[in-house]
Amino acid sequence: MSERLLLRGGRVVDPSRGVDETLDVLLEGGRVARAAAKLPAKGARVIDAAGLVVAPGFIDLHVHLREPGREDKETIASGTRAAAAGGFTAVCAMPNTSPVNDTAGITRAILEKAAREGSGVRVHPIGAVTKGSRGDELAEYAELQEAGCVAVSDDGRPVASARMMRRALEYARGLGLPVIDHCEDPTLSEKACMNEGPVSTLLGLRGAPGASEAMVVERDVLLAELTGGRVHIAHISTAASLDSIRRGKARGVRVSAEATPHHLLLTDQLVKDSDYDTSTKMNPPLRSEADREALLEGLKDGTLDCIATDHAPHTVDDKRVPYEEAAFGIVGLETAVALALDRLVAPGLIDLARLVALFSTNPARAFGLPGGTLAPGAPADVTLLDLRRRRSVDPERFRSKSRNTPFAGWSLQGWPVQTIVAGRVVFPAE
Length: 430
Description:
The protein is an alpha/beta fold and 430 residues long. 32% of the residues lie in helices and 23% in strands. Helix 2 (104-117) packs parallel to helix 3 (141-147) and helix 8 (239-250) packs parallel to helix 11. The protein starts with a strand and ends with a strand. The model has no long low-confidence stretch (mean pLDDT 97).
């Protein structure tokens, strides 16, 4: 049950209302009651937020909880504990479970499990675009939405058929659902395990060209323009993709996009420098320095709407194999915010209000989710940040069941220190 909480004297950063000042925030009945200076504490438990940043709860639009079907990698319980520790009050769960989340029954089962065993972090299921994510028949979006899905995606499987993508956008448009696409041309990226370029040539590894992604991004932007549907581009990694999105937005196309911390901070050179560490293997792959710099520019100019983790937990056996055979993906829930604070905000690449928008206000807006604001009446979902706290990334301390990260040992300053959902403190666990 939620309680009456008073967050005393924190730096409230709320881009939804243009607020950045020292205030008290009162949470009552699972909602934000007031935000003002020197509120009375009568009847409330006081949390001293002096020296901390108080932000609307962070939302991760791209998370793999693996349940049902791959509980050896992650469970709803472990994944939401990781989310809470990482400062996230809500996560959107991708449908590449086993079975695929393509029916209302699976959606309801995920939500029931989250309510019963989760950490208290909100779980928003994402349904499949096509049945079984096989690409040949649309799933029943209306039933998925009624059961609780907030978007549709075939996730790691791109919607290869332009005709199918058009039909998906048209169907989803009538329901107000965004269609999320993993943009990749399978005929160009087949059997690739890293970015195509000088590094892949030097290492003798098959690479996926940036054009594999950019071609499909351009197609999706054009189809969203044709249909009036809402398309969300997952984990973009190339300058050309960013350019397509920027031009689409200028024309009024309903397109949004996310980037991950690893694509913003790392390049394909790390595959060589790490001596084929499989924690550097993800899809889309780490790209060139020119692509990385373009993504950073997209953060600054507003082309990129959100930072999402693409949290992809794997077992040790999935990764402790030759590079070509290793599973794609890394975990990110427990490191994303600290990485952004230390490597994006601290050097002045973006300011703190922009970071909060990328993690909170914009994700809520992109998928029509509750939260993203500390306005009175909003859900009492709050993330507290300590910009002075410094510690190193230690995978052995992760709440996630998996440890696959390229950021082990990185010393970072600025960490989430408290996560509140519906007025209840879910991290640290009480």
